[in-house]
From TrEMBL, chains A, B:
NCBIfam families to which the protein is assigned, alphabetical: PRK05472.1-3, PRK05472.2-1, PRK05472.2-2, PRK05472.2-3, PRK05472.2-4, PRK05472.2-5
Function statement: Modulates transcription in response to changes in cellular NADH/NAD(+) redox state.
Subcellular locations according to the entry: Cytoplasm
Domain CoA-binding: 80-182
MF terms in GO: DNA binding; DNA-binding transcription factor activity
Protein name: Redox-sensing transcriptional repressor Rex
Record organism: Tepiditoga spiralis
Gene3D superfamilies: NAD(P)-binding Rossmann-like Domain, Winged helix-like DNA-binding domain superfamily/Winged helix DNA-binding domain
DNA-binding region(s), residue ranges: 17-56
GO biological process, any: response to redox state
Gene encoding the protein: rex1
Source species, domain of life: Bacteria
Subunit annotation: Homodimer.
Length: 223, 223
């Protein structure tokens, strides 16, 4: 079997999507599924589903498909979701507030236990029930007391690397980075970028491409 | 040259990242750059930068590098960013509010001109200066009047496909989907998913992998 750290990132993300898909099937009372069914629900190829799962050994039987309970158990283990992860919001502005209050977090095993800012006007405000915004200078103490492993970074871009350096120095293991800048981090810290402006530009690329090709087609038709 | 619609999605996203990188260089008064410099700033390989750019012909001269102004002009054209794009927020909850007020949008050519909800308590509230939240039933009228091409979807997951169908029926060209469900859309509508829970699970996969491999290493060392 391939070393876990060698599994391609797109495969890992798809595994998380498969996990969500079969969790839904399971909630609907369904007990068996197939790569074909998962693929259809996600508008991808069944061969892709089989290839992604094959990195982790044999799950299903040819022609019989997957037992949902077993596959769910295995995916939960692979993704590290057998435990609840304590998360800190670093930067308690509009975006930090929205993420802290996003119901999908706790439902998926992520618990926002702390929130930080440097704006004195925000310190002490409740960001979500049970969590008040603390001074960023208290991060070091909080991360130990509350066993925080992941930081969600929603600070202004110009301070992102500085803040990232500080949370890393304090032992954070992973950063979900909402700042539109690439962060450097040592090898033993994971970074995931969520950059929705880049996604918007992928949209405008596609829309523009479609319109250009349509125009070219019309030109050819009129020629 | 490859048809634009055949360019791989990861390449398109990297082009948007290169554009941001050289915009920064340009703002710093720098006039020339190289694939090596761009790659170093983004922690990727220079060969990747060259390959991605090569889809669109020759930009630089071997050994001389890229003229930033020319490359910037070309990337802006490729990504469809020569114009301002009008955007609607569909679902004006916490996340919709945070995105509407995200300063990076207008700075990158995206203008939030409308916002919608179905919650009567929200209708008429100001989501950002100059934009009040309207009833979703007015979407059809607004999209024409305000020339909206892109919708940012921040509605609850259970209504996401229904709402997507409605904005598509009204002629939207692209959807930035923040809902944690895969959306189906006809071929002439682009969808980009922003799913930060999936990104969190990619983080927990990596953290767990690292910890497992460390434990295995320690076991081997003690054996």
């Amino acid at each position: 079997m391939l070393k876990r750290s060698k599994i391609p990132k797109p495969t890992v993300k798809r595994l998380a999507v498969y996990f969500r898909c079969i969790t839904k099937l399971s909630n609907d009372g369904i007990e068996k599924t197939s790569s074909k069914e998962i693929a259809e629900r996600l508008s991808i190829k069944a061969s892709q589903v089989r290839k992604d799962l094959s990195y982790f050994g044999e799950f299903g039987k040819r022609g019989v498909g997957y037992d949902i309970e077993k596959l769910s158990f295995k995916l939960r283990e692979i993704l590290g979701l057998e435990k609840l992860w304590n998360v800190a919001i670093v930067g308690s502005g509009n975006l930090g507030f929205a993420i802290a209050n996003y119901s999908g977090l706790e439902a998926n095993g992520f618990k926002v236990v702390s929130a930080f800012d440097i704006d004195e006007k925000k310190i002490g405000n409740v960001i979500l029930p049970g969590v008040t915004i603390k001074r960023f200078s208290e991060f070091s103490k909080e991360i130990k007391e509350k066993d925080i492993e992941i930081a969600i970074l929603t600070v202004p871009a110009n301070v992102a690397q500085d803040v990232a350096d500080k949370v890393i120095d304090n032992g954070i293991k992973g950063i979900l980075n909402f700042c539109p800048v690439p962060l450097s981090a040592p090898e033993n810290v994971s970074i995931e970028d969520v950059d929705f402006v880049i996604s918007l530009k992928a949209l405008t690329f596609e829309i523009t491409s479609r319109e250009q090709e349509k125009k070219e087609q019309e030109k050819r038709n009129n020629a």
